[in-house]
TrEMBL record:
Enzyme Commission (EC) number: 3.1.1.-
An example Gene Ontology molecular-function term: hydrolase activity
Keywords recorded for this protein, A-Z: Hydrolase
InterPro entries for this protein: AB_hydrolase_fold, CarbesteraseB, Carboxylesterase_B_AS, Type-B_Carboxylest/Lipase
PANTHER family documented for this protein: CARBOXYLESTERASE (PTHR11559)
Signal peptide: none
Lineage start: Bacteria, Bacillati, Actinomycetota, Actinomycetes, Micrococcales
Keyword Hydrolase (UniProt): yes
Class of this enzyme: hydrolase
SUPFAM superfamilies: alpha/beta-Hydrolases (SSF53474)
Annotated Carboxylesterase type B domain residues: 20-499
Name listed for the protein in its UniProt record: Carboxylic ester hydrolase
Hydrolase found in the keyword field: yes
Length: 520
């Protein structure tokens, strides 16, 4: 029998919210931080939700942003899709007499197109049960709804750009104003995210208006180089309107965009999502736009040059990032030889005057790899590892940086060839190792080792959020990344036994060189 839930109450500037006590942790779900974004508010900047005069029930998750359904991302039982999706959730320890705790604000991944803060994977009970941290998970607009910029395609239509990034900024302002009522310390906020969420984290580091909204950052598998300028944004918006059969020259075009059914918006967005990487391997349809205003410059350029917000950063990737994309036959990552050739040609075209490494030079980094796996290695490195390495090098000049690589894979994942693939670190970080009775991850064993890794990861992440070095009890000490010194470029390798390796990416750096490769 399920035990009856016990209510918990928080009185904040935004209003009084009633949540529940779940497994010894207080949880508030579905708190709105912005007004609904449908109708006249579609493709417009988020507007803060008004302060409430009446007590609000916060015991159920809010709607998720409308998105295509994919078996790869479990949104949770009973999840509802709706444009009124800008809400957040708070987990906090039950001991209300303790001093204010550090806050960790999670930005979920999903290629800027899928996912939600309410995914069962991101249940923060395990992480919060240590009693040392408050966790906030947020929704932001996805796909076309969050990343299509219609301001240039339909000038005068009253549309805004970089909507999802503005959603995140507004949610962080909500945290600054309200988190004290939930036991959190607004002066110790760590923003952390994976994949697209990691990309938003590295983007925030290059967003001037984000200064003061967070004090530490963790970027997991960030596609940091996948940001594009106004010209590319205009082409994406034009194709999006074409798929909706909306003529930009029609004086009623803006009204038509606001009135069209959200299902059609999602469908058109999904088509663009699939088309763009097919014609331009290695690029995404949806991502924050380098607009020269909110985001003045490409984040990788800013951070590579040591000009990002000077906050401590933990950053890393997984050993086998690209295997998941190959397994799912995803168009996002170029794997096959012909698509890799397209990618190299595109890099040369988009970086005029830059002496790029030759194909032969690049392949020297993969001489020890099976021929069939070379494409996986190149895709992993250009999409994730190289941008992460360049970013660590640059940002370490202005703030401490800790670099990691997650290498552990359960026996079953190794057997089917996925290894330590993209997002495979998430169950360990959140302490939610099994996603349901049909989860095969530990079919061949490895659960005990996984629990030990999970405990160490949580200890390191929480220690970092607390303001300490990201160390764990009875585990190797992890020192900040430095480009010189007796042990340069130290990287924590997370595996059955954590270890620290100096210059782990030496072969990669030698083969690819130090140039920042850009797509526009």
């Amino acid at each position: 029998m399920t035990p009856p839930s016990v209510p918990c109450r928080a009185e904040s500037p935004a209003g009084t919210f009633v949540g529940t006590v779940d497994r010894g942790v207080q949880v508030w779900r579905g708190i709105p931080y912005a007004l609904p974004t449908a109708g006249e508010r579609r493709f417009r900047d988020p507007v803060p939700a008004p302060d409430l005069s009446e007590t609000r029930d916060a015991t159920t998750f809010g709607p998720v942003c409308p998105q295509p359904v994919t078996p790869a991302i479990a949104l949770g039982d009973g999840s509802v899709q709706d444009e009124d999706c800008l809400s957040l959730n708070v987990w906090t320890p039950i001991d209300e007499s303790a001093p204010a705790r550090p806050v960790m604000v999670w930005l979920h991944g999903g290629a800027y197109t899928f996912g939600a803060s309410s995914q069962p994977l991101y249940d923060a009970t395990s992480m919060v049960s240590t009693g040392e941290v408050v966790v906030v998970t947020i929704n932001y607009r996805l796909g076309a709804l969050g990343f299509v910029d219609l301001s240039s395609a339909l000038p005068g239509g009253g549309f805004d750009g970089n909507l999802a990034l503005k959603d995140v900024l507004l949610a962080l302002r909500w945290v600054q104003r309200n988190i004290s009522a939930f036991g959190g310390d607004p002066e110790r906020v760590t923003v952390f995210g994976e994949s697209a969420g990691g990309g938003l984290v590295t983007t925030l580091l290059a967003t001037p208006s984000a200064a003061g909204l967070f004090h530490r950052a963790i970027a997991q598998s960030s596609p940091a180089s996948s940001m594009y300028g106004p010209d590319r944004a205009r082409r994406v918006a034009s194709r999006f309107l074409e798929l909706l059969s909306i003529d930009p020259a029609d004086p009623r075009a803006a009204d038509a965009v606001r009135a069209i059914a959200v299902e059609r918006v999602v469908e058109a967005g999904q088509t663009v999502y699939a088309e763009v990487p097919t014609t331009a391997p290695g690029t995404l349809a949806f991502a924050p736009v380098v607009d020269g205003d909110l985001l003045p410059e490409a984040p990788l350029t800013v951070l590579r040059e040591g000009r990002g917000l000077p906050v401590p950063l933990m950053i890393g990737t997984n050993k086998d990032e690209a295997s998941l994309f190959s397994f799912m036959k995803s168009p996002l990552i170029p794997i096959t030889g012909d698509r890799l050739e397209q990618m190299f040609a595109a890099m040369a075209a988009e970086n005029p005057g830059v002496e790029l490494p030759s194909r032969e030079q690049v392949l020297t980094a993969y001489e020890h790899v099976r021929h069939r796996a070379v494409g996986l290695g190149v895709a992993r490195d250009i999409g994730f590892r190289l941008p992460t390495l360049w970013l660590a090098e640059g940002h370490s000049a202005v703030a401490p940086v800790w670099l990691y690589r997650f290498d552990h894979a359960a026996p079953f994942l190794r057997l089917i060839g996925l290894g330590a693939t993209h997002a495979s670190e998430l169950p360990y970080l959140w302490g939610n190792l099994v996603s349901g009775p049909k989860d095969l991850t530990f079919r061949l064993g490895g659960r005990r080792v996984a629990e030990e890794i999970s405990a160490r990861m949580q200890a390191r992440w929480v220690a970092f959020a607390r303001g300490d070095s990201p160390d764990a009890p009875d585990a190797v000490s992890w020192q900040p990344f430095r480009c010189d010194g007796p042990d340069p470029r130290e990287t924590l390798v997370i595996d059955r036994r954590d270890r620290v390796v100096a210059d782990l990416d030496h072969e990669l750096r030698e083969a690819w060189g130090d140039e920042v490769l850009a797509f526009r």
